[in-house]
Design a protein that fits this description.
Strands 1-2 form a two-stranded antiparallel ribbon. It has a two-stranded antiparallel sheet with strand order 3-4. Helices cover about 55% and strands about 0% of the residues. It is globular and about 60 Å long. It is built from 20 helices and four strands. It is mainly α and about 375 residues long. α11 packs across α14.
């Protein structure tokens, strides 16, 4: 896929259809990679600058989906997962290995360390993964025992040749340079993750703001709910509730919208905090909500956006929130609706039933 395809897949409820398959020659790919901006030119518009002049692999797609849902506190953890030898830098090989583990592909297949026919077969399902003992251990891949010199830490000629079999992508060139010799430090990694999150949120916001500095409270409700598994009638009820209870539009700025969406990346911590109120049998007020957000994120949301959230989810108008329902729905929003099937489990029957239910209501 291209960077443009990726942006559409996470910002559009129904990505535009593709007619046919684009075939790229080696020269086409080479030209794309040569035009890839280096890390020094990274920004919150990187993917929009590249659009269809780049390539992204499937494993990178999974990685980028994970980036969108990572809280700030998880950036360092994610970086350390790539930094397998603990030297505070990530090189190209480390990045490739963890990507393949994430996608469930055997490391032996990635680096060509085995010529056994069985290992050359394509993995047909993520549920058919081999046990970790069947994968090449990270020690075998990196051979980076402490106390070795730089020359001893170099890859063998066979491993280098195997690495060259991996096709370069726009992301690899952006991170590690045209020759793949550059390294990624945590600050580079953190900045990339922040920029990508901001870019996707900005695209969503601009779709509804139409060039204005704010979006309406009704549009805010539509943005929050359009990726969820709620059916159309339930979404319409929430939207109408906001329309009725907010007669005078104040508007929500991009800063407020981004702050709220950043909070959603901390939903797991927020759920723990909310469970404390549930155990005490205490209903959740706006003040309780704000306090829990502050505990999880270190900042306070704008009171107006919290009031709007309560209106969206407070069906009976008693001023309290059902946090279980809120968290469940917002997790679907966080994982972009249909993309959530890649991120958390749901039975096929439930997915099928939800699809049929939506179609029946639309007819």
């Amino acid at each position: 896929m291209t960077p443009q395809d990726f942006l559409e897949s996470v910002t559009e409820q129904i990505p535009r259809p593709r007619i046919g398959r684009v075939k790229l020659s080696s020269k086409d790919v080479e030209s794309m990679l040569k035009s890839t901006p280096p890390r020094s030119r990274g920004s919150g518009k990187l993917f929009r600058r590249i659009l269809d002049k780049g390539i992204i692999s499937y494993t990178e797609y999974l990685f980028l989906l994970c980036v969108l849902t990572k809280p700030q506190s998880g950036f360092k953890i994610a970086f350390n997962m790539f930094d397998t030898d603990g030297n505070q830098i990530v090189d190209k090989r480390e990045f490739l290995v963890i990507q393949q583990l994430q996608a469930g592909l055997p490391l032996k297949k990635l680096f060509g360390l085995s010529h056994d026919k069985k290992n050359k077969q394509v993995v047909s399902s993520r549920n058919e993964l081999k046990p970790l003992k069947d994968l090449v251990s990270l020690e075998e891949v990196f051979s980076s025992a402490s106390g070795r010199t730089n020359s001893e830490d170099k890859m063998s000629a066979d491993q280098q040749a195997a690495e060259r079999t991996v096709t370069d992508t726009t992301l690899l060139v952006h991170f590690f340079g045209q020759k793949g010799k550059e390294v990624l430090r945590f600050e580079d990694f953190r900045l990339f993750m922040e920029n990508l999150q901001s870019e996707v949120l900005e695209l969503e916001f601009k779709e509804f703001s139409k060039g204005m500095p704010t979006i309406s409270e009704v549009d805010f409700a539509r943005i929050l709910l359009r990726y969820t598994l709620l059916d159309r009638s339930e979404i319409n009820e929430c939207v109408e509730r906001v329309r009725e209870r907010v007669p005078h539009e104040k508007g929500i700025t991009f800063k407020e919208f981004k702050q709220f969406c950043t909070f959603l990346n901390n939903l797991d911590d927020f759920a723990i905090t909310m469970n404390m109120y549930a155990l005490a049998g205490k209903p959740i007020s706006q003040e309780d909500f704000q306090r829990a957000v502050k505990v999880c994120t270190g900042y306070t949301l704008e009171p107006h956006i919290v009031r709007t959230v309560f209106i969206i989810f407070d069906e009976d108008g008693d001023g309290h929130l059902s946090h279980h329902e809120f968290i469940s729905i917002m997790k679907d929003r966080l994982h972009r609706g249909s993309r959530s099937y890649l991120m958390h489990s749901q039975s096929r029957w439930e997915a099928f039933r939800s699809c049929v239910k939506n179609e029946m209501k639309s007819n």
